[in-house]
Amino acid sequence: MSAPSLKQLDGVLVLHKPGGPTSADCLNQIKRRLGQKKIGHAGTLDPMATGVLVVLLGQGTKLAGYLVDGRKTYRGRLILGQTTDSYDTQGKVLAEAPWEHLDPEAVRAEVLGWKGTISQEVPPVSAAKHQGKPLYALHRAGQEVPVKVKDVTIFDSQLLSMELPSLDFRVTCSAGTYIRSLAHSLGMRLGCGAVLSELEREASHPFTLAQAHDLEKVLESKDLLHELVLPMTQALPHWPKLVLSHEQAALVQNGAWLPTSLFPDYPAQEGDRALMLSAERAPLALMEAGMRAGVLSWAILRGLWQA
After folding, report:
1. Euclidean distance between CA atoms 99 and 89, whole angstroms
2. In the predicted structure, residue 126 carries a pLDDT above the cut 50
3. Whole-model pTM?
4. Contact by Cβ (8 Å): 60, 12
5. Greatest CA span in the chain, whole angstroms?
6. How many C-beta atoms surround the C-beta of residue 155 within 10 A?
7. Distance CA 247, CA 36 (A)
8. Cα angle 162, 97, 170; round to 5
9. Crossing angle, helix 179-190 and helix 104-112, to 10 degrees?
10. If pLDDT is split at 50, 70 and 90, which confidence band does 1 have?
11. What is the pLDDT of residue 290?
12. Could you tell me the pLDDT band of residue 136, with boundaries at 50, 70 and 90?
């Protein structure tokens, strides 16, 4: 069945992803059933995971990489005493070990000790790539999966409850952090193994679950979809908005730099970013302040004007 003839929207849809489908499955359903042919996201979730999935529509796809501040908050549950090939309960069990001897305070200290910048082992069953192929494809084919390590930052970690062998936690971390790997490494340090059993992304900052719409609600919205989508002018709530004159807008569209002194109400510093709007308040460009010929000026990061 062909996709309905619905208008392509521009902006951000904060989706509450259900457990089960992949992030790509969710996007494909929106694309197929709601006619949103130009679609992307700002950070995937594992099939088991639920919570905030930031979906980009139309011109909104140009915001990828600029949209979120890189911090994500998760609430999860892990179970001690088991090790799997995927680091979660959906994988193949590789080993089991007793956990009853563990001191709850030692477990608590390990969870709170997540904070800081750490080197994290990427799960062998993941979408991370080696020589152009995702690790999960190598794993499924029975090929050797190389060990990949990446540096991530845990800004905050909390132990919410503990009834061994399970415990609930919350972490705020940098983009690209594998929560499954946090569970796995904790199990290794405790000597009994650990697997992730539940995971919900509570925030992909600055967007939270309070703003998120259930997938089924979205798929049933059809002509009301525009009411669920944040327009481009609201897609970057943490960026200042600067309105340009017609002459300034024309200069920007020709690639010119604009001295920050033209906007005295916003005293910019080098490295600051802003969303430039046309005189009609239409999105024009993402800009960053930098030095040019000794003058602090706004330069284009990404043009947003319609051709």
Report:
1. 17
2. yes
3. 0.88
4. yes
5. 73
6. 16
7. 34
8. 30
9. 140
10. very low
11. 96
12. low
- Residue for token pair 């950070």: 43
Instruction: Enter the tokens of residue 163.
Output: 């009834």
Interatomic CA distance for residues 164 and 187, integer angstroms: 13
Residues in Cβ contact with 280 at an 8 Å cutoff, skipping those fewer than 6 apart: none
Query: E strand or H helix at 101, and its extent?
Result: none
Tokens of 276: 């430039």
Assess contact for 74 and 17: CB atoms under 8 A: no
CA dihedral (19, 24, 26, 29) positive or negative: negative
- Indicate the average pLDDT of the chain: 90
Nearest to 189 by CA among 83, 76, 117, 77: 83
Residue 87 banded pLDDT, cuts 50, 70, 90: very high
Per-residue pLDDT of 198-221, as tens digits, reads 999 999 988 999 999 999 999 998
Mean pLDDT of 260-287: 95
Catalytic residues: 46
In this structure, how many other beta carbons lie within 10 angstroms of the beta carbon of residue 103? 9
Residue of higher predicted confidence among 147 and 24 = 24
pLDDT at 222: 86
Phi, psi of 22 (to 5 degrees): -75, 165
